[in-house]
Amino acid sequence: MQIPLPKIDLPRLPFTPEQASTIAGHVDALYLYLILITLFFSILVVVLIFYFAVRYRRRTPDEIPPPVEGSLVLETVWTITPLLIAMTIFVWGASLYFALYRPPTDATEIFVVGKQWMWKFQHTEGLREINELHVPVGAKIKLTMTTEDVIHALAVPAFRIRADVVPGRYTYLWFEATKTGRFHLFCTEYCGTNHSGMNGWVVVQDPAEYQAWLSGGASESPAAQGEKLFQSLGCASCHKMDVQGRGPMLIGLYGKPQKLDNGQDVIADDAYIRESILDPQAKRVLGFGSVQMPSFRGQVTEEQILELIAYIHSLAAPQGGGTANTAAPASGSTTTSGIAPDTQRSNPVGPTSPRTQRNTGGAMQPANANANTPRGTPPP
Amino acid sequence: MSAADTPIDPLNPVMPDPSALPADSPEWRVKFPHVNYINAHYGIKSWLLTKDHKRIALLYLASVTVFFALGGAYAIAIRLELLTPPGDFVQAHTYNKLFTQHGIIMIFFFLIPSIPAVLGNFLVPLMIGAKDLAFPRINLLSWYIYIAGALFTIWALLNGGIDTGWTFYVPYSTSFSNTYVVVAGLGIFITGFSSILTGLNFIVTIHTMRAPGMTWFRLPLFIWSTYATSLIMVLGTPVIAITILLVALERLAHIGIFDPRLGGDPVLFQHMFWFYSHPAVYIMVLPSMGVVSEIVATFSRKNIFGYSFVAFSSLAIAIFGFLVWGHHMFTSSQSVYASMIFSFVSFAVAIPSAVKVFNWTATLYKGSISYDTPMLYALGFIGLFTMGGLTGLFLAALGMDVHLTDTYFIVAHFHYIMVGGALMGYMGGLHYWWPKITGRLYPEGWGRFSALVIFVGFNLTFFPLFLAGYMGMPRRYHAYAEEFQVLNVMSTAGASILGFGLLIPGIYFLWSMRYGKFAAPNPWPATGLEWRTLSPPPTENFASTPIVTWEAYEFRPIEEMEVIGPAPEQSSRPVPGLTTT
């Protein structure tokens, strides 16, 4: 869900960075609102203090003013009023936050890997860069980020965006640049000795200029590189494309719910695929409980994992129907036939994975398994 | 001549001839000091083995002052490095150690023990009319634990230091840093027990040892805020102890708790760390709020407006304070819905603080206001805390925080709370109770002058950092982009003024201990029980158990505010300033 934000044309305030993204003006508007509230209350308090301090200064050394009783009305007023004002800030801030952290579905994805002390970027077209990120103006860009070592955080003040980059998981940012130019890009989570050197530039270019820049570099897409890895690491010997191998088929898998052998469901997203590569036994797909897939921890870098995910993502491209191959898995993985239909009933949205389809006996046509997608075809 | 030349036997003083030496003259006070907690016993052993809460307070005073000076020295080095954009004053690795050690020393060894352990120790029994804390031996033990923890940390600093930031974020602290993380952490772990014991002692004392007539709603507001602080200490500190222990386990034994390569979760650490470290902010600032309530009442000679609202707001802050830790983690990849709840509760916790500010301001209305040094600090506190609190709203607002977190805006915000709030309150309190603690007056003119210098220097140091933060300058940067330089030069200039301003009280406090004018029992005058005993108080605080028949902050002419004098067996010695009619 994308919360629509009203259009805001706010001039640039003093001591603020450039407004170079669609969200920047909105953040600045909230900033201005907060500054006005701060000014109002601090001036109120300071003026009252000064006024009282002068008006009621001590005139004789032993004067004792009569005590003043408290006032329930006043206490109520100055409890409720700040609370109401605070709630307006809360709602405004929360709506911005949702807009900031929910990438639109039509955004172009760029992979980001942080590493002590550099930023590595990889474009969908395959181009890689370090500490510089080229993007076209006016395009929605989604950053899928992780790190090879400690926690980092990627911040672009001119875009008013920031997110921690956490080892072991993916975090996401998105933006749409509105201005061409070079903008600071900082690591803002302390990451060790050369933390302050882990910065660079976002270079926002005209689309034409960007295309020219793109064509100057390497051109194999992450998905294509992921496919090569898929073959060279031997993944393909179990995860077969045309017949059911020892492992689950990966066609049509990406982004769909998976039944696990412990009865739970999991969405086959970036985080799940990553975990299954590094720690295959953590969440085993129903029917493959006894398959001992080896861990690839230490054999693949974070960038290679991202390429493998891009490849698996590309297999999910909705192209035509076709039949999912649902041959029996390797021996030992046979399940009692009752389980799958039961679990399937308990999860009406879940008849999606080829594995559960197998156990339903007759219904061999998965709703969304686009099984005969050509290998390595990038998403449209 | 007579009395003035005769050496005095402190155990058996002889009455001098009053005609030769007036009983309230300074000469009299030099020759015939009443027996008080300072001169009752002599020798280093009498201090190191004391069970007197007032002496233990002074032990804490000396130790936190040393740590404040050390933390301040780190701050100076940091500001010097940041004078110019390139990292040219120290190496990056050194700089990282500087800000880490500045944070660790200032937070764990100065701010957290400052008001509770120094002023709280001194004042809690006096204010409630008790002879001592409930557990005097545990009180002494907690100082030794504090020193033991401090020695561990100092050992780590001397042997190469630590570079993780005071936040110890994993997996940097568990798997990457090559510095003395475990030793420094152990120091904090140990010191935590000192906090727990102090808090426990205060809670039991306040519950069980109040003088007859000292009902809960006659308690000075300092006691209410100390009580709230003690709750946080007792409930929160064990969590940081566990967290540090887990960091040590992962670092030493490679047990996977936080590092994802070992199967752990790095964000779990942040949850555990901030579960303590956010309430710890209130350990630092709540006692200051109590001090400000006392000072504002005394120097406007008014009862605190809305006493019960101020009292309960302390408890509300202590309780809500445990529910907002996630607002440090809005960009950490925690769930957006969790962030939303944390943001909501963070706005809620701002309200009791606002209520306090409005009540202090209303207390001034129709008062009799004097501008003595403690009052200048208290009014400064209100202004700076208001700024600190309101900029907290920026950070509690989710979409705003994304742009501001981990920038200098955060640094400016929490220095407004911790220096503008906690330190101003501590300085105000030290000045306010200095006559009671030492029996001497500090020089008032110098006091006012230095309060103004500190106020100006503080604002010049930290206000520009708000602007640098919004412009995007990340914190913990050894070298920074050139567009931030002007603001950083202003900040460094302010820091030198601030440092100079803080030196002045350091000098005149020391000076006044020997040369200051003698203080009457109730020099301001104020209403609390601590002012109804001698300055400095005798070891047993009051000659007889006080019976409280008046409300909190009930101002009366000084003649009517009776001083509870020394015990009958000592009363052969007249006490200057004691009304004996």
What does this structure look like?
With 380 residues, chain A is α+β, with helices and mostly antiparallel strands. Chain A contains eight helices and twelve strands. Chain A folds into three domains: 7-56 and 68-102, Helix Hairpins (Orthogonal Bundle); 108-215, Immunoglobulin-like; 222-359, Cytochrome Bc1 Complex, Chain D, domain 2. In chain A, helix 1 (24-55) packs antiparallel against helix 2 (72-101) and helix 4 crosses helix 6 (302-314). Chain B has a single domain (54-569), classed as Cytochrome C Oxidase, Chain A (Up-down Bundle). The longest helix of chain B is centred in the first third of the chain and has 37 residues, at 92-128. The chains are: A alpha+beta (380), B mainly alpha (581). The interface between A and B is large, with 85 and 97 residues.
Layout of secondary structure:
The complex is a heterodimer of chains A (380) and B (581).
Chain A: H1 24-55, H2 72-101, E1 108-115, E2 118-122, E3 128-130, E4 132-136, E5 140-147, E6 152-156, E7 161-165, E8 171-176, E9 181-187, E10 199-205, H3 207-215, H4 222-232, E11 257-259, E12 265-267, H5 270-278, H6 302-314, H7 339-345, H8 354-359
Parallel strand pairs in A: 1-5, 4-10
Antiparallel strand pairs in A: 1-2, 2-3, 5-8, 6-7, 6-9, 9-10, 11-12
Helix pairs in contact in A: 1-2, 4-6
Chain B: H1 26-31, H2 44-48, H3 53-81, H4 92-128, H5 136-158, H6 172-176, H7 181-208, H8 221-253, H9 266-300, H10 307-320, H11 336-364, H12 373-396, H13 398-404, H14 408-438, H15 444-471, H16 485-515
- Helical stretch count of chain A? 8
Order of helices and strands of chain B: HHHHHHHHHHHHHHHH
**Major beta sheet of chain B, specifics?**
none
Strand order of the largest sheet of chain A: 3-2-1-5-8
CATH topology of chain B: Cytochrome C Oxidase, Chain A
Q: What characterizes the major β-sheet of chain A?
A: 5 strands, mixed
